[in-house]
């Protein structure tokens, strides 16, 4: 910065008076050039004129973003068949439906003592290779935790895929599960208490 001011002073300081006589002799007084350092804020407007990066602009006011709406509650009870993509055809549209290749052992089913008795369904999306691609629980709210546990187990099953006109086809299969004591087992006990 100091160097810049010193170089500028050489251009501003008048050259030595010429030795040639002047037509009108006027006493010439030499101007005294003083150099001083200027604080950066005093030369800020001049810096803006110099080529370089764009001046920093104040940030724009923040935009207000609407809060996301909470997702709609999942209705209790069966969901529509549109829960699975249409590529997974119902067994009624296939030449042959899917068949379970890996039957579950009896001891694989968990004991869920805190689950109220009832029924729920699991809709399986079975790929053309026989693997379970997706499981959609169809349940009432109190049974949904149990349906989630069962869905995890069922997702490990393997099927012989269904076929459509001799070609393996993705399919859907709906299974129903009952947890707790069967409804028929409860009814006789109630009758015994009445007698």
Quickly give the structural class. Answer: alpha+beta
Summarize the helix and strand pattern as letters.
Answer: HHEEEEHEEEEH
Note the total helix count.
Answer: 4
| Strand coverage percent | 15-25%
The CATH first-level class of the domain at 86-180 comes to Alpha Beta
The percentage helix is 10-25%
What topology, given as strand order, has the largest sheet?
Answer: 1-8-3-4
The total strand number stands at 8
CATH topology (fold) name of the domain at 86-180: TolA/TonB C-terminal domain
Region (Disordered): 46-68
Biased composition (Pro residues): 52-61
Protein name: TonB C-terminal domain-containing protein
Overview of this protein structure:
- The protein is of the alpha+beta class.
- The chain contains 4 helices and 8 strands; from the N terminus they run H-H-E-E-E-E-H-E-E-E-E-H.
- The chain has helices spanning 2-12, 44-49, 144-154, 183-194; strands spanning 89-90, 99-100, 118-126, 132-138, 159-160, 162-164, 167-169, 171-179.
- Strand 6 and strand 7 form a beta hairpin.
Keyword list:
single chain, 195 residues, alpha+beta, TolA/TonB C-terminal domain, 4-stranded mixed sheet, 8 strands, 21% helix, 19% strand
Please summarize what this structure is:
This protein is α+β, with helices and mostly antiparallel strands and 195 residues long. It has 4 helices and 8 strands.
